[in-house]
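P.,

For your records, the input lines for the assembly:
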Amino acid sequence: MTNFLIRRLFQMFIVIVLASMVSYGLLYIAPGGPLLGLQQQQQGGANRITEADIARIKARFELDLYMPVRFTRWFIGFPKEPITIGDQVFFADLQVGCATTQTVRLRYPDGRVEFAEICATPVTLADLEGRRSSNGILFGDFGLSQVILRDRPISTLIWSRLPYTIALMGISTLITLMIAIPLGVYSAVRQYSPFDTAATTVSFIGTSLPTFFFGLMLILVFAVLAKNAGLPYLPPGGATANRDYIIPFFGLFELTVQAGSFLDRVLHFILPCLVLTFVSVAAWSRFIRSSMLEVLRQDYVRTARAKGVKERLVILKHAFRNALIPFITLVAGILPALVAGAAITESVFNWPGLGRLLVDALNRSDYTVALALLYVTLVLQLVGYLISDILYTVADPRIRLS
Amino acid sequence: MSPKLKFPLSGVLLLVLLVPILAACGAGTTSAPVVETVVVTTEPEVIVVTATPGEDMGSTETPADTPPDAEQTGEWQTPHPILGTLEVRQAIAYCTDRRSLIESVYPFLEDDEKDALLMDTFLPQGHWALAPDEEITIYEFDPERGNALLEEAGWIAEAEGEPRFNEAGDPLTLKFTTTNAAFRQTWAAVLEQQLLENCGIQIIRTHAPGSWWFGNTTGLQRRDFELGAFAWVGQADPGGTTLYACNQIPLPDNNWEGQNYMGWCNETASRAVLAANNKLDRDQRIEQFHALQAEFTADMVSLPLFNRFEAAAASNNLVNFRPNPTTDSILVNVDEWELADGGDTVVLGFTQEPASLWLVVEDAAVANSASGLLKVRAVTSFDYDYQPDALEELPTIENGGTVLNTVEPAVGDTVWSVDGEAVELAEGVEVINADGEIVAYDGSPITLNQLAVTFEFPAMTWEDGEPLKAADYELAYAIECSEDSGAISLTVCNSIADVEFRDNGYTITYLPGAQWAEYFAYTLGTYSNLFSVGAYPSHQELADGRKLADVPASEWSTLPEIAEQPLSYGPYRLVEWQKGQRMIFEANPNYYKGEVAIKTLIIEFFDDTNQAVAQLLTGNVDVLGSETLGAGPELETVLEAAEAGQIQAFPITSPTWEHMDMNLFIR
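Structure tokens returned:
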């Protein structure tokens, strides 16, 4: 087990480094960012943007550094300055970026003339001294937000959103497990029964419906139309109301809900939780069902029945435990999902969680925030896989990790 | 004594890896060619290498003289074989039914609302500088006239609904480039159909990503189009120098500076736009803008299509809500708002959360709105013009609020150059003289204008009861004009020679030659997007014990007392900011106009417009601005709800206007 853990942790480190490089590289080449459009503001008048202004903005967001340097500064917080040993300073003049470019005319010996851009103002390692820099995301420093929380720590942003995502995803996952497992098992045991047919139909609907469409339909029906019809209604979105509101109950009585109260939070929770649960139940119950069906056809199940073991025991002890093994792989995804959230559902229901934050970060080109969220998700995904590997041994004693 | 190590050992290893990569990244050009520096300039020399068509620009088939030395002038010197002809450009205008384009994107509007969106020049209907119809060329939809012009230009129709051909057998086909926004795809499809069916002009549409079309080194900026559609945002001051002056044509020789993407050089128009922006007298400016519009429409190098349509919405309960196309926020007159039922809370919805309340580093609409609640505006900008707010009157030259001195600077004195930079006066430096002419200094005496603008405000106090004083204005100037603050543009700051601070305001003296047309609105709060009074609480003590006035500009963007909880002297004060959800404001009892009627104001954040509209229709939100409603189907939903009496809708003719540029040259 120890050897396994050491090997896996080393592999995880390699995967983290490679995945970080890939995700950083992809966002590096993505269009957008703080410089987009600045060139077009290079006009006369009060908002004229000069080359010096652009150089200043580039330096502020490290856009004047070459990609490998930007990556290592983000990943491990290095280099921050020239290397100093005693009184000796090394690599101070090493060019690590370019502040301004210049168009030059290249006149070739054969008379051809073409234009090219060269670096007019190089950035050296010495220029990095005094610049803001994180200590590296590998060491837990996410750095500063470029857009969403301008110049302030990303960790502040993440901590402010994390409780909402954990609450939504945690409770939704718990309900999903409580419904999907019995549903899947019962459908498998009663294969082709009216219950199984109905569950299969509903599951297909659940897996086919796009989340955003389903969410919008629920808002329309249970919030907008219900309220307009004078029926009891649910809040369309958000985590809490901004002021007290009244919910009518068919003319019998009216319920005044105080903004921020427990009831208010529960009412706001219902619709997003319903969407996530419905979609997950549909997928997971199908998975459990097919896994159970496979196990129920095994010889050892038939043997158990032949030995006269009670049907309930056959299903729960002999079949269900073995059917769980493939399901554990699926459950490994819960851990990152608990933190990453459900981007679309959170956006549709205006839930202030990390999923919505990721969408916001990508929309607003806040790549440091997006990278931090991707990084956290990546690490948790790998931890999830590690846990699922360990759980295999619990579910099936025949499995030896060594 | 051990040596001081200032790096991790892993760093050395990494450096060993990095050095070759960096060497590759920074690799220079080969030594084979001779490298010559290209002088980046906005001087008239560039005009010479670009195009000097003379007064008959567009009336002949070759709109530009062939440059004398192609090797020296670079790219974009060959007149476009189709768009280089005035008749073709005018035919495109006559064959474009702009009402149909409007109908395709705004089918729910009434006819008069659609007519209000039509544009004939680069200024919207009702603008103070708009030229009257008799002074400009108007292109009503007239396919017959368009066809006649095409015949005249040698483009022969062979079959109806098919492209025309010229004698050489070339089809009348043009590449049309714009963004991939659904809105543009809709009207561009209609344009494609009507040009082909009505006049035999075939356009081949390319809907490119905005990042390419508006990129710094791609699309528009590199003039990589034949017909190109996009939008400009109209403002109270028409400006236009960078769009229509001869020296603003992006070319390799000027490092692609400028926004005259058409490559249009009409000397009369160029002189007019420069003169219009170099003068301070409004009547003289109007005259020049009219001359510019006359040339602009006659040459038809850019076809104005329509203003976009927007709307704001509010609950039926809200009174005195005045959304306007040219104010910086829907909350400009929030101190006049009331609720008909006497309520005390209003909830606004925005699709974005502000990154910061410090507008030096954040310019989102919601940040303007939220930050504006904590400030006092000196000037407002309703209906494409300026009005005094906290000022008694705008400090103009006419009323004596601004003094226009004439000075004779000596060599070495700092002056404001034509290029928009503070420079020492020396031979060859170009400046605008007192007569509004651009002249190059040749050593002989020169007379320049020098503006001194005085802003006087009523007595105001911060939310903690401390009165605004000279030190607060001084701090605003020091911070907002600092290079370390994170501000993008410091142009106006750099043009200031001196500021004299008083407890009730200040006098800004500009450098000789700096002639801002909107000088009467440029307060110390202008640089951070609002025409606010411009003050910071110099007395404020921070959580870490320092005084705000002692904190260097480089730290301001990270200060919670500035970015998240600034002290207010406006109508409201911020009491809570629930991240990702809402900001809660309460009436400021120390507001100089007296406490406002609506005691609590909440700004709620919605990423999704559907969600925002659902909240409006369920009564959870009272106000949605045009920036929140956008131009999607939600707009129609809101208008329908207003028609049903559920809410109030406020149609707005947006300052954003769609147009189609025609590139006069090819690479």
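Two observations worth noting. Chain A has a mean pLDDT of 88. Chain A touches chain B through 94 residues (CB under 8 Å).

Regards
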